[in-house]
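Consider what follows.

. . .
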Amino acid sequence: MGRRNIEANPLTDFCGEYLAHIEDALKRELDLYSWSEFHAPLRYACEGGKRIRPLILVLSAEAISGKKANGDSYMAASAIELLHTESIIHDDIIDEENTRRGKPSFHVKYGYNSSILTADFVLGVILDIGSKLKNPLVVNELSNAATRMSEGEMMEIRLNKAPQITEDDYIKVLEHKTASLFRASARIGAILGEGTEEQVRAMTSFGQLLGVAYQIHDDLIDWNNEDKLFNMLVKQNDKSAEFVDRMEKLYKSYSAKAKEELKKVRGAGSTVRHLELLTDLASVQI
């Protein structure tokens, strides 16, 4: 965990101002529920995140519009981070993870019943944010991401019980469980940035490709410490260095393809450069 935090620090070098605004926006949304029993647990659940998904949304909005991201972009970014938080609460229960971001997992600290109810409450908060944005396209993307993420989790549960899995099985899970929210982040940003149809398509593809690259890279780092689909694939391939090398080339291929999609975008040059830097997962673990 310490290694990941150190590797994530370069984000603040070129995106510190954006991250600060994201934190402020998220705090504003959560503080609307300061009266609720769920407020303190929600603050705990959101602590320590790298905010990469909301960052992609805000940067995408700026890259398309060529203007500083507005309040709607940061509000939508809060919804994205909350959807990610809700998925983490559930994932840690399903995967029986006892720690998250260097501290006890949510269900370890608050119990299973409170975890289920808090995740439900988070969905209510996300719906409220969606209603305030008054943009049905954004709400639709949040909905699509939530359903695809759930489908990905169900796929993973089923495959974990399978005697053998394929690389295609693994990638399909990543495309749903992880990449869906990256995809939604970039697409919502492009929508709020009032992009053309071509720009929205390019940003959507960028987010999808980056999400797959991110998860492969993350799995390559942690496969020795986790018993998940990637670990199963490594074991099926006799823990061979050739297989690991092949998967490393695969994540680099997805990352390169994501960067290619950005060439189709015309907007704020420096902001596009920030998005390009996020594709370099070897130097910036996001």
Observations:
- Residues 1-8 have pLDDT under 50 and may be disordered.
- The radius of gyration is 18 Å.
- DSSP finds 14 helices and two strands in the chain.
- The first helix runs from residue 2 to 8.
